[in-house]
Amino acid sequence: MAYLLGIDIGTSGTKTLVCDGKGRMLATAVAEHPISAPRPGWSEQHPEDWWKATCSATRAVLRKAKLKPADIGGIGLSGQMHGSVFLGDGPRPLRPAILWNDQRTAMQCEAITEAAGGREALIEMVANPALTGFTAPKILWVRQHEPRVYEQTKHILLPKDYIRYRMTGEYATEVSDASGTLLLDVVKRTWSSELLTILKIDKALLPRLHESPEVTGKVTAEAAAALGVAAGTPVVGGGGDQAAGAVGNGIVMGGIVSATLGTSGVVFAHSDQPTRDPRGRVHTMCHAVPGKWCVFGCMLAAGGSFQWLRNTLGQEEIKAAKKAGKDPYELLVAEAQRAPAGCEGLQFLPYLTGERCPHPDPCARGGWIGITSRTTRDMLIRAVMEGVTFGMRDALEIMAEMQIPITQVRASGGGARSAFWRQLQADIYKKPIVMTNAAEGPAYGVALLAGVGTGVWKSVEEACRSCIKQTGRIRPRAKLSALYDRHYGIYGKLYWDLKQRFAEMAV
């Protein structure tokens, strides 16, 4: 039986996963890598750290699964989207990669929008507006501020595609991740010659395009020695983390939507057609399913807000969890459960790193609003969870405006592991929350894509039907949904009330 290896280059670490030819998971492993913020609003990583983590986590997962190098029949790659790796000759990057949550490129976004003929014209061209997270404005920033780096640049790669290059020697990508560069004609699934010409970016800097299940190259002898797999192992296109995670959760047909609470929060819907939001609040991109598209909204600090709470105010829980052998998040959630729903009007705005959906605003700031003398620590914790979930609902509301059918929401990410947070999502979204047997996200999704590319399954849809099963269903509670409707209405107004103040506070 062929075994399949999925690799996901995340923001905080690289995850590897091995499953068999029936989609049954054998083992996972994780290797962390650091992130740096050289200036406020900046976010960078060294691509070499991704490669070291990939080698470490791949060797670890093969040991756990008790597999030999030749047992791996195919490899799929996923990773954080939008990051930019600038290469000259050879594998050593010319500068650290600028990441998806970096906010330095507001001026470049304005320049792109103006050069394209306005926001509507840009959305018509590449299906999305210019946002600070995307790759194109990062390219312009480097060209403007680091001209010597740009002059030496011969290849610009996304994070997972840098790992592909280190594995195979190939400069290649696939359409789901390429959609997040702002340089892809999403409708035609090819690089946008029109926008590249307008921005004066040489198409030769960009990698070769593939569909996600296609084989893009084979592992070289040098990479095989570092990874612990066999030379010649095929590597498929894979997918950006959102599309790959959707495949791993079975979001490959209309009506099924995923809500992923990771560092960021993403609501993702499959689409048979390239349906655009004319206001650009949610993204339209190519799906990892050949010939299909997706619509998704991304808030920047979902689980990231809860992580901030743990790191900043949760020292007691961290100590108690360590002593009891528990996860500190479990203790924080237990405290949140003691607070009343709605927290007596207390609201939390989860804009800790600016925001993207529905407010593309790098100046947005987070905070609690509505603290009174009755406010307890339990309420502060619960308000963070409610505020993040309100932020996720924003994307669902936009999709409803776009008449995208939503029959069920599949929960994934860290928020899906908490029964309390799953029920909170059902109550706030007013939709059933469905759990599946597939909880490993992008790494599992690209393992399935590797299976499609190497002939284990005939299509992505067949792989998902074969491997992903519903395991539970949570229904919204009408009384609490009505309460949260009122609080959500207030939440939605607070950004606009504070928008100008946010801009004044930004440094």
Q: Explain this structure to me?
A:
This protein has 18 helices and 24 strands. With 507 residues, the protein is an alpha+beta fold. The strands form 8 sheets. Strands 18-19-17-16-22-23-24 form a 7-stranded mixed β-sheet, with helices on both faces. It has a 5-stranded mixed β-sheet with strand order 3-2-1-5-15, with helices on both faces. It has a two-stranded antiparallel sheet with strand order 4-7. The protein is globular and about 65 Å long.
Write the topology of this structure.
Blueprint: E1 3-9, E2 13-19, E3 25-32, E4 44-45, H1 47-65, E5 72-79, E6 85-87, E7 97-98, H2 106-115, H3 119-126, H4 135-145, H5 147-152, E8 155-157, H6 159-168, E9 172-174, H7 175-178, E10 184-185, E11 190-191, H8 193-199, E12 208-210, E13 215-218, H9 221-227, E14 234-236, E15 239-240, H10 241-248, E16 255-261, E17 265-271, E18 283-286, E19 293-299, H11 303-313, H12 315-324, H13 328-336, E20 347-349, E21 367-369, H14 377-401, E22 406-413, H15 419-429, E23 433-436, H16 442-453, H17 460-467, E24 470-474, H18 478-505
Parallel strand pairs: 1-5, 5-15, 9-12, 16-22, 22-23
Antiparallel strand pairs: 1-2, 2-3, 4-7, 6-8, 10-11, 13-14, 16-17, 17-19, 18-19, 20-21, 23-24
Helix pairs in contact: 1-6, 2-4, 10-16, 11-12, 11-14, 12-13, 13-14, 14-15, 15-18
